[in-house]
Amino acid sequence: MPGMQNKQIFQHATAEIFGQGKLEAVEEFFTPDFQEHEEGPGKDRGRGGLKDVVRIVRGAFPDLQVHIEAISEDGDQTWARFVLALQQALPSTRFVAAREVTASLRVVKDADEIVALRRAAQAVDHIAAAMRSEPFAGRREIDLHNQLVERMLEAGHERANFAIVAAAANAASPHHEPSTRVIDDGDVVLCDFGGTMAGYCSDITRMFVVGESCEDVDAAARRVIADAGYGEYFVHRTGHGIGTEAHEDPYVVAGNHTPLVPGHAFSVEPGIYLPGRFGLRLEDIVVATDAGPERLNHAARDLAIVG
């Protein structure tokens, strides 16, 4: 199992520090059952809680000046109320940071641990890739936060440790708490998320920008024609999707708030139609890509004079 070698080293180090005769009590003291988890204060998962911790410590070290290296095997994340209560119950005890014992044991991962970390990383990789096709515009930061949490659990994580979603100016705060702010067109969105999978943690940050929607493209085309004084003569939508059918989704038209994402293929065909005189229209097929729009048609677009 991942970490088994480290656990054996830890047991050896504990015996050296506390004495072999105290090892069983010390291991009970270090059990994760006495941690208070992220659910919040007052939701201990221990076998009796803090009173049992104090009882175990006193039973293990009735007459010694004990150098207790940690409250929890999980490092320096023990709740302050546990430490303060233990300090009061054991005034002659010196408390030091857990990393003085555990850091050297954890710093080099064994082969099984690296496999576990790789699997956790691959799980969030798939989530980050899938988010590239998700609509962001019109949704709240907290909505995307909840989606990331759900996807981590679906991907095999036991728990989601965090899921930061920060849009626009909120992304200037490195540890922003997801809010009810609605994500808008043009927003840059930071997503930093990770969890625990098979006992080992994942952590990934990716950036997204809310691109233009179909409606935005339609408005941009109309703006140019309107600024030239012909807005009332542009009488149809700017474009339509294209693929196995000549006309399919997405339709580039006012009222279609669908965000454009890489892979969307559509026409851009603005026109000006002067009743009783003539009509003008140019049309190209465009594909949305990560690097921006790619025009598939390259024939000259000037007015050709023919015989």
What key phrases describe this protein's structure?
307 residues; alpha+beta; Creatine Amidinohydrolase; four-stranded antiparallel β-sheet; three-stranded antiparallel β-sheet; 13 strands; elongated
Number of strands: 13
Low-confidence stretches: 1-7, 16-48, 64-75
Find the structural class using helix and strand composition.
Answer: alpha+beta
In whole angstroms, the N-to-C terminal distance is: 81 Å
Spatial shape: elongated
N to C succession of SSEs: HHHEHEHHHEEEEHEEEEEEE
Instruction: Please tell me the total number of domains.
Output: 3
Strand coverage percent: 15-25%
Largest sheet: 4 strands, antiparallel
Helix proportion of residues, in percent?
Answer: 25-40%
Q: Tell me, rounded to a whole number, the average pLDDT.
A: 81
What is the count of DSSP helices, taking H or I runs of 4+ residues?
8
Rg, nearest Å: 31 Å
What does this structure look like?
The chain has 307 residues and is α+β, with helices and mostly antiparallel strands. Strands 3, 4, 5 and 6 form a four-stranded antiparallel beta sheet that branches. A three-stranded antiparallel beta sheet has the order 9-12-13, with no helix packed on it. Strand 1, helix 4 and strand 2 form a beta-alpha-beta unit. It starts with a helix and ends in a 12-residue tail after the last strand.
Helix/strand layout:
Elements: H1 4-18, H2 23-29, H3 50-60, E1 67-68, H4 80-89, E2 94-95, H5 99-106, H6 111-131, H7 141-154, E3 159-167, E4 188-197, E5 200-201, E6 204-209, H8 214-227, E7 239-241, E8 248-252, E9 265-268, E10 271-274, E11 278-281, E12 284-289, E13 292-295
Parallel strand pairs: 1-2
Antiparallel strand pairs: 3-4, 4-5, 4-6, 7-8, 9-12, 10-11, 12-13
Helix pairs in contact: 1-5, 2-3
